[in-house]
Design goal:
With 215 residues, the protein is of the alpha/beta class. It has one domain: Rossmann fold. The protein is built from eight helices and seven strands. It has helices spanning 2-29, 45-58, 74-80, 99-106, 150-153, 155-159, 179-189, 206-214; strands at residues 33-39, 63-69, 86-90, 116-120, 137-143, 163-167, 194-197. It has a seven-stranded parallel sheet, with helices on both faces. Helix 7 links the parallel strand 6 (163-167) and strand 7. Helix 1 (2-29) runs parallel beside helix 4 and helix 2 (45-58) packs across helix 8 (206-214). It starts with a helix and ends with a helix.
Length: 215
């Protein structure tokens, strides 16, 4: 039975990754740059989108977003209020987006008018890691309020992403969080990872993020 389960998991991941490759090809054909946002609930994924969109507008870039959540549309409504096309995806019992759900969302968007798509994954530090979506880069957002051991608890998340955003740096002292420890842990699991520090509530560090994702 154990071998059957392993085989089924491999088939699921394989099918998903094939779809993810198709998504990536479609993004490329349309000249769209796509970014997968991962992180726990409350880390700042939606805030990141809210802050980045005006900066991209200044550069004459049109943004869209796919908001993934187990249930509800709170994040989706916040994104809509920024004034960009968005699609809400409820995953039901699943704790992650998959390539098929992203493809379904893309079918409801006018890709010709979009330069950049942010795919906000479900707030979870474990499940989304194994399911690629076709994005050009994966960005993991963590916050000081999650504790400075958050990286050490979720090594696979950091091995599989290219950019790390450490948010709520203004609260680090109040919650006794050692940001340097977080950075050291990230570099141990992924020496190549780009690390950015932000206070998204005030907009600090946003221009650096825009520079990195557009590079």
């Amino acid at each position: 039975m154990h071998h059957v389960n392993v085989h089924m998991e491999a088939e699921i991941y394989g099918a998903n990754n094939r779809l993810a490759e198709r998504n990536a090809e479609d993004f490329k054909a349309c000249g769209i740059r796509a970014f997968d946002l991962l992180g726990a609930i409350g880390s700042g994924k939606t805030s990141l989108i809210e802050r980045i969109v005006p900066e991209l507008k200044k550069r004459n870039l049109n943004t869209a977003a796919i908001a993934g959540d187990v249930y509800g549309d709170d994040d989706f409504q916040r994104i809509v209020n920024v004034g960009i096309p968005a699609f809400n995806v409820n995953t039901g019992k699943e704790c992650h987006l998959d390539a098929h759900l992203v493809r379904h969302a893309l079918d409801h968007m006018n890709l010709d008018d979009i330069d950049i798509v942010f795919i906000e994954n479900v707030g979870n530090m474990v499940c989304p890691t194994d399911f690629k979506l076709g994005a050009e880069k994966r960005i993991v957002v963590i916050s000081t309020t999650e504790g400075d051991d958050v990286v050490n608890k979720h090594p696979m998340m950091f091995r599989d992403c290219q950019i790390a955003v450490i948010n709520k740096i203004d609260l680090a002292e109040a919650v006794d969080c050692n940001i340097e420890r977080m950075i050291i842990d990230i570099k141990r699991y992924n020496p190549e990872m780009i690390i950015l520090k932000t206070d998204l509530r005030k907009g600090e560090g946003v221009s650096e993020i825009v520079d990195v994702i557009l590079s």
